[in-house]
Write a structure and sequence with these properties.
Helices cover 38% and strands 18% of the residues. It is an alpha/beta fold. The strands form two sheets. A six-stranded mixed beta sheet has the order 1-2-10-7-8-9. Strands 5-4-3-6 form a four-stranded parallel beta sheet. Helix 2 packs across helix 3, helix 3 runs parallel beside helix 4 and helix 7 packs across helix 8. The longest helix has 16 residues. It is globular.
């Protein structure tokens, strides 16, 4: 299937933008708009589509033997890649962290295998070194780094910025940060001050990824809302996500978007943003249970 045809038939693009309200923001005249990239598609939701789009286009024009990438047992990125491979008839392989795992360890891995992704389980040391199994090495293999970070992944954010430019004139953009791909792409193409809320302790990795881009000091990485280890449950964070859903009818999860919105609320409360600011919070989606 051609990528343009797929977009027209299956994706909600441009994704909508929705204002949310809190009484505490009225005095400051702070307006918060949520860019609902979570509504793009039930599976390749949010920034997963943004980061994979240019890879798909490249793969369709260059016909690699296989597309390989890395991820954990519940990787949103690999889950989306497996789905994309199935629908675009592209051969995919996922290298999974944890040699104690198998295809049947959880529903996500099982679904990825059902979509045709070949799964390889590495011990943690081999995974850290990003070792690729010999049977996957080929001159015509396309490797997508963990989380989708590369120049190709960053390029995919250009479409998001074009949409935002047509929807709203923002003073700040706030986004969750994993590898930094999304935040870097937003800064590169929007030239708007961007606040990246860290979701794991990887500031050195993010800074390293930023080095090759001229972001004109527009990107600020905030590590105050990690709540311990990546994906670690925190009661206050879980309660925040539940309250947010009840009030705004927007589902968020504690790993990425929950941390981002929690940080955004805290920054507003502590007067980080000047009065009369217009903020865009990017909802980067989240994994869906297999059907």
């Amino acid at each position: 299937m051609d990528i343009s045809e797929f977009i027209l038939k299956h994706l909600q693009l441009p994704s909508p933008i929705q204002e949310i309200f809190e009484d505490e923001w009225k005095e400051k005249n702070i307006h918060v708009f949520v860019k609902r990239d979570d509504l793009i598609h039930p599976i390749i939701t949010g920034n997963k589509w943004r980061k994979l789009k240019e890879y798909i286009d490249f793969a369709q024009n260059n016909e690699p033997n296989s597309i390989i990438s890395f991820g954990g047992a519940f990787s949103n990125h690999l889950y989306a890649l497996a789905f994309v491979g199935f629908h675009f008839n592209l051969k995919t392989a996922g290298i999974i962290r944890g040699n104690e795992l198998s295809i049947n360890s959880n529903p996500y891995l099982k679904q990825m295998a059902d979509w045709g992704m070949d799964l390889y389980f590495l011990d943690r040391e081999s995974y850290r070194k990003k070792i690729i199994p010999k049977e996957l090495t080929s001159k015509n293999t396309m490797l997508i780094p963990e989380g989708g970070f590369s120049n190709i992944g960053v390029l995919g954010l250009k479409g998001l910025v074009t949409e935002l430019n047509n929807q709203i004139k923002a003073d700040y953009i706030v986004t969750p940060v994993g590898t930094g791909t999304t935040a870097i792409g937003i800064c590169k193409y929007s030239k708007i001050k961007t606040i990246g809320i860290q979701t794991l302790n990887n500031k050195a990795e993010i800074e390293n990824n930023c080095q090759e881009y001229d972001l004109e000091n527009l990107l600020e990485i905030n590590g105050n809302y990690i709540f311990g280890k990546y994906a670690k449950d925190a009661d206050v964070l879980n309660k925040f996500c539940d309250t947010f859903l009840k009030k705004h009818s927007i589902m968020i999860e504690p790993t990425y978007t929950g941390r981002m919105f929690y940080g955004l609320y805290d920054l507003i409360e502590n007067n980080y943003f000047p009065k009369n600011s217009k903020l865009v919070a990017l909802h980067t989606g989240g994994i869906k249970l297999p059907h």
